[in-house]
Write a structure and sequence with these properties.
The structure is a homodimer.
Chain A lengths: L5 H15 L11 H8 L3 H13 L3 E4 L3 E4 L12 E6 L7 H14 L3 E6 L4 H13 L4 E4 L11 H9 L4 E4 L11 E4 L1 H14 L5 E6 L3 H16 L9 E4 L11 H11 L5 E4 L2 H13 L9 E6 L2 H5 L5 E4 L3 H15 L7 E3 L2 E3 L11
Parallel strand pairs in A: 3-4, 3-5, 5-6, 6-7, 7-13, 8-9, 8-10, 10-11, 11-12
Antiparallel strand pairs in A: 1-2, 12-14
Helix pairs in contact in A: 1-3, 2-3, 4-12, 5-6, 7-8
Chain A binds a DNA duplex (30 and 30 nucleotides) through helix 3.
DNA sequence: GTTTATAATTTGTGCGTACATATCTTGTAA
DNA sequence: TTACAAGATATGTACGCACAAATTATAAAC
């Protein structure tokens, strides 16, 4: 009684042993009677502990037969497999395309998809993952939330791992969890491609704006700066705008945002590499409203090749995200993981899509 | 011991009494001791029964205080509300728009949406609803599956009702469950509008193709035929093609489908009212491929005003589904239901959207 | 060797008791 | 009236026992 109730202690020990694979060979867990003697508690206490494991879907009890550890693919007898998909947004931007790619693979395989959005909020992510743990999903695809920081939800991911529920990160992952595979774009490489493109087209005062509270933005920025540096160009802070998710919707109203725009109007930079196409078209619109002629006076390059890229004026030169193909790969990978295969992480390559926003310029 | 274990019997009785609102006034359920005397069983048995109710989220136990019946809005202490949304499809057709409308309302209110698709399969619907029952959702929005037939899943809807989890049907509902409110389009009225439109533009040999295994199609067809009849026109079977979800993807390869197309090519009808825009544009394409000049040789009218309506050639005249506004209304209604209000069913009106596929014709 | 009856094993149900711990109520003192 | 302490009340934990019901292993019979 010292600290925790006995049945919880017993449950924790068994949980750990199951995770470690102690019971892998023999299909059966020890008998209640054996456990009773081992832990020197009453049988009711043992039963209380095992009930917890059963709730978690870790073991199956069969009257007259024994208690069996569920391991490997947890296919319920006649039930359909369920996969939870947790993205930051659902109906915006390129997410419908990615989700569509995932869904087509899952539905072709008779797997039900269960889709939720975190809105890049860690507590929402927590709430969603808790529900997934309650609801017995067979696999989870997650787009990490503010992955530049440590996640508060590592305990939930650990519980998923304890239950042998495969987890696959997409777009963005938590570096603190190296054992969980991910499928992401090669953001560092993308940053380098963007930088190289900017330079090769003759720009000499490159600037950039990046969201840096997720890995994508951090890596894109890092690649961008690295490539610039290796070309002998050091970008001063005045030509960079860094911001987080919370400033996303109204970065242009922040002090830093306004100052940045003012500096651009004075032509302190001759082009801007943008975190993604939303910000690129938003920034272009602001500058145009203030009378700047684009793309003549300033060049722009974005990421993702979203609809904005086609609709904006000038049309955006951008790095193309495979979207549907990306989602399909993610779905296929998770299905293989559910079937017990070990999967490696993937960094997909970007494709440059040349449009009108980054024309070649002549510098004396 | 006769039939069922005692603890199950006790649980069932309590479940029923809770559903009937016996404990509504006093916030607290009877104490374990009182229940023990009432049912004349041991306290352990009572606890076993109450544990089941707790798993279902029907009651809350507080050590030192008592056992409380959860009724009305089940807001978990600090947790976020979760709403399950079950549609037939997610990424196709007008569903992204409807879902987007729902999502915007829910996310504005800090409610997490949990989206799944049935693919119009009753067993998939069952599997999804079971997961929702496990995972403690606070409300459910469902698009009924093949609502022209009885549903096999009425038991699950009953369990949702027992737990005071509000359910709202959208687009299509089960007539056998009159107590569950729904938000649908006025499909019967839409059928009449389409018929009136066809007649007023001078068509004299109207035909139609309808999916009739869901309420929408049945009602659209009924309204269409009623309006025709009241105008003195009886449509022979040869000018109608009726089919179900399973024939959806390749109706044109079925015997009936082929025969129907052949009759159209012989101009046995001068216009076709179609279940929705997918079928309208699909049918137009087939006829055009066979050399028919549209819309001169045959008129078409669809339902829903999906993208197809804009993209097809000729552009489709169709009845406009409000999509986002529809979804928003659905979301708002469910939120009110979660807050304990009683909501009435809604039939939303269609708006005729005139494009090019149903031109006025001159008949001698 | 196969079948069938029997016994042993294992989990499920049910009762009773005791004490722990959190909460609520009541009474007393300031 | 407020604050605090003691007691009453309710659920939580833990033990023990007995028997039921399903499964599995064993032994006997053909």
């Amino acid at each position: 009684m010292s600290e925790q109730p006995k049945y919880l202690q017993v449950a924790d020990i068994l949980r750990k042993e199951i995770a470690e694979g102690v019971f892998r060979d023999g299909q059966t867990l020890m008998t209640e009677e054996e456990l009773r003697m081992r832990f020197n508690v009453s049988r009711q206490t043992i039963r209380q502990a095992i009930a917890l494991l059963e709730d978690d879907g870790l073991v199956d009890r069969r009257r007259g037969s024994g208690t069996y550890v569920r391991h490997g693919p947890r296919r319920r007898m006649q039930g359909t497999l369920h996969v939870g998909v947790v993205t930051t947004y659902i109906t915006d931007y390129i997410f419908p395309n990615i989700v569509s790619g995932i869904e087509s693979v899952l539905s072709e395989n008779g797997v039900v998809m269960n889709l939720s959005a975190t809105y890049n909020n860690s507590r929402t992510e927590r709430s969603i993952l808790e529900r997934m743990l309650d609801g017995q999903v067979d696999g989870v695809i997650v787009e990490g939330v503010r992955t530049a920081q440590e996640t508060e939800n590592e305990d939930l991911y650990r519980r998923l791992a304890e239950r042998n529920i495969p987890v696959l990160f997409m777009n963005s992952y938590y570096p603190g969890m190296p054992n969980v595979p991910h499928v992401v774009m090669d953001d560092y490489g993308g940053g380098r491609i963007a930088a190289r493109e900017v330079l090769s087209r003759g720009y000499r005062k490159p600037g950039g704006m990046f969201k840096v509270d997720d890995l994508q933005g951090k890596e894109r920025l890092r690649g961008f700066l690295d490539e610039m540096r290796s070309a002998g160009i050091l970008i001063p802070d005045e030509r960079l705008l860094l911001f987080g998710t919370d400033e996303r919707m109204n970065w242009q109203n922040t002090r830093e945002g306004k100052a940045f725009v003012e500096r651009l109007k004075k032509h302190e930079a001759d082009c801007v590499t943008c975190y993604n196409d939303v910000f690129a078209s938003s920034l272009m619109g602001i500058l145009q409203q203030d009378g700047m002629k684009l793309p003549d006076e300033m060049g722009f390059i974005g990421f993702d090749n979203a609809i904005y890229a086609e609709l904006s004026n000038p049309k955006l030169t951008t790095l193309g995200h495979p979207k549907e193909a990306f989602g399909a790969l993610v779905g296929e990978k998770l299905l293989r993981m559910i079937n017990g295969e070990r999967e490696r992480s993937v960094n997909m390559a970007w494709t440059l899509i040349e449009r009108d926003s980054l024309p070649r310029v002549d510098n004396l």
